[in-house]
Every structure is written in structure tokens, then in C-alpha cells.
Amino acid sequence: MKAAVLRQFSMPLAIETCPDPVPAAGELVADIHAVPVLPYSDEVFANSRPHGLQLPIIPGCGAVGRIRSIGPDATRLKVGDWVYCDPTFRARDDAETPDILLQGWAAPSVGAQALQKHFHHGAFATQMLMPMECASRIALGADDDPTRWCALGSFLVPYGGLLASGLRPGQTALISGATGHFGSAAVAVALAMGAVTVVAPGRNAAILSDLSARFGNRVRTVQLTGDEDEDRRNMAAAAGLIDCVLDILPRWRRTHHPSAPRQWRCVPAALSS
Fold this sequence. Notes:
Blueprint: E1 2-5, E2 14-17, E3 27-34, H1 41-46, E4 63-70, E5 82-85, E6 88-90, E7 100-102, H2 110-118, E8 127-131, E9 135-137, H3 152-165, E10 172-176, H4 181-192, E11 197-202, H5 205-215, E12 219-223, H6 228-239, E13 244-247
Parallel strand pairs: 10-11, 10-13, 11-12
Antiparallel strand pairs: 1-2, 3-4, 3-8, 4-5, 5-9, 6-7
Helix pairs in contact: 3-4
């Protein structure tokens, strides 16, 4: 198979011919048709944003592909199925607090480093070996563009937070960081989960306007001013009672983002990229 290999940090990826992967029990090999390229990839490849990658490695975080071959214990997935390849792999020997690897992208713990020794390579290749449970069948028509399905990765991140928060249909959610990449995706996910109202505070007026145009009056945008008291009042006026707050801001040292007023009934679901 052909693959883009990272052999040295801060050096260009090298296009190489690599051995075809072979699945064992609990594994499959997918032919890769589309891969997202994350906006901070250059920082990962330069190791200025260390992700614990063991070199050499075929990077790539998530993909859309078709099953090429599959282990003998498969009962539902079949060769030829279109699948979304979720890069989030959880170790199988501790169901309550498993070590987590982002296959081909991030190994932040000792346990994740151990997982990376086997599920080492990511999706910048024509084929990829992956755990069977990380493949979800998707229904692509003959005219569908596989690259559009790569957006699933952006929606799965806020979905995890909103699911953990217990958001239910008919409730009101506030998305802290609604104009960011994952934040704007969180607005769409909250609506899809049945939120009657989504409060979307942010600094980017153009994106706030776009959210309103796309989703209508179920989204109530709040232009942040930087004045904490004023911003809090504006968010309270936009929504009243809040059932769920998803804080999906990155780990900045100074966010100057107003916290929720005490009278709001909030279930924090903090995430960081």
C-alpha cells in the first residue's frame, strides 16, 4: 500500500510503499477514501504540540473507507461496507477507566503508548488496520462524496459532552465557545438531540449571523463584549432557565468568558481539544 510516513519531526511526510496490513480477530482493514486534515497538523508533525507519537508513523486522525478484509469474529460488518473510522480506541482490559488512544494521532498516557505499539498507524494511507468496534457503517449512495462524511469527527466531540450532560429533548442548552470549530458543531448537535433552544455566545459576529441563518429562532446568539457582567446579563436575557452548559473552549490561559449565573440549572460538560 501507499502511505504518507512521518519519519522525523519537522520534516515533510514521505510517500512510501508499506506492507499491507492483515487483520486478526477483533480487527479489520479499510480501504481509505477520505481523511480529514486537522488545522494544527503542522504543530503535531513538528512536535511543537507533543502528541506522544512514536516515529516512524503513518499519521491521520479518522477516515471514511470501505472494509477490505475483516477478522473471523465479525458478525455484522462485511467486506465492502462503507464505514466511518473513529480514531478513538479504548483499551479492552478495563471497561470502567480504559486507556485511550487517538489512532495515528495522540498517545497521551503510558497505556496509550502501549496501545500505539500495535494500532500504530493512522489514516494517511490507502489502507488502515483498526479495531472492529471503531468502524461504524454509513450509507453512502453512488453519488455521495465520502469527504463530506469526514465531518462526523467534528460532531462526535460535542456529542460526547452533550450525551454525558444528560441533555434531553425540550431542554435549553448553552454552548460556551459557539463560534469555534467544535462549538458551532455543538450547536447543530444540540438541536439534533432535541434542544428547544440553544444559546450561542461568541465573539465572531459573522459566524453568529450564520448560525442564526442556518438554524432559525431555536438558536439565540449572544455577541460577547468582553464585559463579564454585561455578557452574563445578555445570556440570561436570551434564555432564562438553562438546563445544560457545554464548555467547549480550548485550554487557553485567559478566556475571560463569563460563568453561568447561579440561578441557571447547569450540568457542566467541559471538553478540551
